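Encode chain A's predicted structure.
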Amino acid sequence: MNRTVFSLPVRSEYRTRGGLSVLRSVEQFTGGANRLDDLIELLDRRRGVVLSSGTNVPGRYESFDLGFSDPPLRLETTGFDFSLQALNSRGEVLIGFLGDSLREPCVVVTEKTASRLAGHILRGAAPVEEDQRTRRASVMSLVRDLVAAFSANDDPLLGLFGAFAYDLVFQIEDLVPKRAREKDQRDIVLYVPDRLLAYDRATGRGVVLSYDFAWQGKSTEALPRETPESVYARTPRQGFSDHAPGEYQATVETARAAFARGDLFEAVPGQLFAEPCERSPAEVFQRLCRINPSPYGALMNLGDGEFLVSASPEMFVRSDGRRVETCPISGTIARGVDAIGDAEQIRQLLNSQKDEFELNMCTDVDRNDKARVCVPGTIKVLARRQIETYSKLFHTVDHVEGMLRPGFDALDAFLTHAWAVTVTGAPKLWAMQFVEDQERSSRRWYAGAIGAVNFDGSINTGLTIRTIRMKDGLAEVRVGATCLFDSDPAAEDRECQVKAAALFQALRGDPPKPLSTFAPDATGSGKQVLLIDHDDSFVHMLSDYYRHVGANITVVRHLHALEMLKQRNLDLLVL
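Encoded structure for chain A:
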């Protein structure tokens, strides 16, 4: 979160690049946890977004919460079709502004009313020069057009908030679809809010930014902010998996055959699990934040009864408009039952050649993605195979940065990485085609991105993994495993189960397991033990072991040993 938000003036006015007048008022507050909880609960019935980082990693992540409800404007795309919809009368002012401001030649508006702009994108041919691929005409061209219209350096938070689906990559790359998509599948849902709550957990400080907009004599001032409800329908449903037992392992074997032919080096096939869920999205999100705090937690009410609840551990792309960062994750192992078990698991993970090779490949492909848009010599690995800790897992993570070349911006940084090698494979194009050929259902939001595209030119997005899609009484969880030539199909299948565990715990309300499974016995009950300390380094640990089995033990220095032997009736003497 940009902390300059806490130093903004109480009231200010500015004008965007497109000419929209913006009036911003700022309310500071302290102890805002209750206000945040109220917002989270409101998203059970109102459209909006809460982004929540529950981790602190110096130089990488800090804890914060940012969110809103009742946004006035929504962008929605499916394939090359788009709609910009006013969700209340305040949004109609923005529709009027955008109707006069869209400039991209590929954006064709075919419907224009007071509350709606709709149309399609004229897809461009694939570029000859690869460094222009991120500018290929797509629905992301419309996103770029919106950012340009709202662009202003006067505000650190306002922007487009929401979700980008995996299928966007089919507009950037010439991949071949192999299955029909569901009728309700959307590729982008982004909101423009007019009120933002930002909360700094470390200090307990918070701020509410409220915005009014004016265009061509029309203003949002005094207009109501409420929008129509969109609720999670608890329809009775049956759970399912899109893979029968053994099918995922067969997919891994198919990948291994592709490795042997040299078609692929790495692949990340996924599988989908779905369960009926009576809990509300807000309840699931709050539980997930407690049991598995993550840097890219999110609760999104996307409208049409669809919700995303995320505990993503992985940065997709973060950029201030010049510097671009990513944090590829590859290498996963379950937590131990206690700290000693954790240490052993970490040692095993760091000593795993397979996990090291996986992360090598992911980071090398990530650096290649950056090289398309970054200044030569600026791409650096800032951190190598660092351990990140979550409720049930350890991950190994790299941290990579580069500096954008002149003429490229944060959206170019976003698109050049679509999508992360950690959820596709390598070579990336062949791996994405393998995923499309082999998976049993479309990925929807999985392996896309969630977060914010800010109007000051910055972007902060997480990879859409460890994310629950909730709709019509059903909660869907999709997970994948990174496969190499020497992968064990059964082990990769188990890894998927481990990754899904924390999400299923949030869905089912399973109580957390205790850290220690120690159960003392009573074999020493009633026994009198004297332990003589000859200045040993571990005498008190030794005595504690006797107490664990119920013995009554006395510890004395050797100077007092004879006296204690005369006074006590002992069952055991320990020297």
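The mean pLDDT is 93.
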